[in-house]
């Protein structure tokens, strides 16, 4: 009954941690494509090829349902995968949906016409690939009207986090927030559109100010997954063992992951 969680690197561990706290008895298979991270600077075809390869590995591990805990993969590859690649008996879900549900205060299954919502000015912080895809804006437009979204490509932040250089990551976050504010001086809400960014959430909040609501993904995705599995209990696959897989060097990735989650995480080669 395992569920797969995929990320280009370590950022998806923020989602895994939240899911484990919400669904402690659910076996999870995590796959980090650390050998090819970061995805945020790759083109859409490259992201698609890498993502399908990784998701297929999770299918082989006994996961019938896979969460793309990578915003770049969700933005650049998910729709194409769902339309032409995912087998009929499998499901691949992205991480934008829970964010948009929270922001617009309506359920994803609500297919009524888009309507005005309380928040009018939204800052989106994401990787260059996610920003260029405009996937968040496209999905939001299905649900809400009159929302001004200003996107800021946060180059370098993922690399700094993956390298464990949180001082550099903080400096980059503050620089990107300053750049966003030059374009949108008074955002009402901010979306952290990368699963690495919750590790810098306090820095984003401090740089943006206490009056800006900051939406992070991990807990929202965990709640959404719990609800999905209630409605689709057969989508838990036959796998029974939790695993951590990586395309990178397992010892190095295990060390970084242990620092991330502050508990021992042992990766094995994918």
TrEMBL record:
<protein>
    <recommendedName>
        <fullName>Glutamate racemase</fullName>
        <ecNumber>5.1.1.3</ecNumber>
    </recommendedName>
</protein>
<dbReference type="InterPro" id="IPR001920">
    <property type="entry name" value="Asp/Glu_race"/>
</dbReference>
<feature type="active site" description="Proton donor/acceptor">
    <location>
        <position position="70"/>
    </location>
</feature>
<keyword id="KW-0961">Cell wall biogenesis/degradation</keyword>
<dbReference type="InterPro" id="IPR018187">
    <property type="entry name" value="Asp/Glu_racemase_AS_1"/>
</dbReference>
<dbReference type="GO" id="GO:0008360">
    <property type="term" value="P:regulation of cell shape"/>
</dbReference>
<comment type="function">
    <text>Provides the (R)-glutamate required for cell wall biosynthesis.</text>
</comment>
<dbReference type="Pfam" id="PF01177">
    <property type="entry name" value="Asp_Glu_race"/>
</dbReference>
<feature type="binding site">
    <location>
        <begin position="7"/>
        <end position="8"/>
    </location>
    <ligand>
        <name>substrate</name>
    </ligand>
</feature>
<dbReference type="GO" id="GO:0071555">
    <property type="term" value="P:cell wall organization"/>
</dbReference>
<keyword id="KW-0573">Peptidoglycan synthesis</keyword>
<keyword id="KW-0413">Isomerase</keyword>
<feature type="active site" description="Proton donor/acceptor">
    <location>
        <position position="194"/>
    </location>
</feature>
<dbReference type="GO" id="GO:0009252">
    <property type="term" value="P:peptidoglycan biosynthetic process"/>
</dbReference>
<feature type="binding site">
    <location>
        <begin position="71"/>
        <end position="72"/>
    </location>
    <ligand>
        <name>substrate</name>
    </ligand>
</feature>
<comment type="pathway">
    <text>Cell wall biogenesis; peptidoglycan biosynthesis.</text>
</comment>
<feature type="binding site">
    <location>
        <begin position="39"/>
        <end position="40"/>
    </location>
    <ligand>
        <name>substrate</name>
    </ligand>
</feature>
<comment type="similarity">
    <text>Belongs to the aspartate/glutamate racemases family.</text>
</comment>
<keyword id="KW-0133">Cell shape</keyword>
<dbReference type="GO" id="GO:0008881">
    <property type="term" value="F:glutamate racemase activity"/>
</dbReference>
<dbReference type="InterPro" id="IPR015942">
    <property type="entry name" value="Asp/Glu/hydantoin_racemase"/>
</dbReference>
<feature type="binding site">
    <location>
        <begin position="195"/>
        <end position="196"/>
    </location>
    <ligand>
        <name>substrate</name>
    </ligand>
</feature>
<dbReference type="InterPro" id="IPR004391">
    <property type="entry name" value="Glu_race"/>
</dbReference>
